[in-house]
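## retry 2 of 3
previous attempt timed out at serialization; input unchanged, resubmitting
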Amino acid sequence: MSIKVVQEALDRWFDQGDQVAVATLISVRRSAPLPPGSRFAVSSTGEFVGSISSGCVEGDLHERLLAVLDGQAPETVTYGITDEMAAGVGLSCGGEIDVLLDIHDSTDPAWCRLLTLIETGDPGVLLTGSGSMTRSHRLLLTLKESIGTLGSETLDDLARDRADDLLGRSDAAVIELLSDEPESTVFAESFVPPPRLVIIGGTPIGQSLCAMASATGFQVIVVDPREAFAHPDRFPDASQVFALWPDDAMREMKLDPRTSVVVLTHDEKLDEPALETALRSRCGYVGLLGGKRTQQQRRQALKIRGVDEDRLDRIHGPVGLNIGARTPEQIAVSILAELISLDRAP
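## retry succeeded, writing output
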């Protein structure tokens, strides 16, 4: 289960003076009941909480975690269907998982700061050592700071150098900090608010995209200086609707790598300031509605505004996947599909 699910028990055990060991699901191959980041914890009195596989391997994990509490070295174990395991412990769904076993320290600075981030909804990435060079170490990266250590200044610096990339992820995965050095692996676990989608233009495409994106987990913000277009009743699924000029609205948003901006107004008076503001920000995606002629005109206008080629190349235009979309609803599907495909890209 997630950190929130197990935290109440961890706090209680810590207050009782019990030692705690935690199993963390760090990798899934093929299929498994629960995603990476799920946790199963055991106290020194034998109590347990959480789940890694909805019951398939928890019995074995319980014994292994008690052994860790008794002095056995932390380790990573793999469960799956093999000839040896078919009649014993394994995953009936046919998948294979890697599980990290380690002592839990409730006073660890990275862990304590993470709990605060989860409460406030601020983004952060917890790096938990899973290789021999990093094991039993944790480092938390936020937009402004890093807390903890992975065991060496070199590894900490490498992690900080990748902070923007790691904070832009929405998943959890094992990564190597040193190229071709598997012992430098860490489990990178993102704790970020929902991805944001800023829709510039209260158009029919914008209405359809707002409803679909909200239903798939995006926090949607709609911006259009025309009050009739930006009326909240037209966008019941939006978290916010602003009747402001795009550049004015976006300057207040602190656009980050988890934010996508889609410009749908098809009006140069709105497109150009919106695009310039988005391209000069740290947002992760910039899409522009319109055919080749519109794309060329906007790029030329942005060059005159002083936007360099590297930034211009960030524009996805025409916006959306090329699926032959024609209606506002179909175009919205193509845009959302592109956003999802980029988010899920390795």
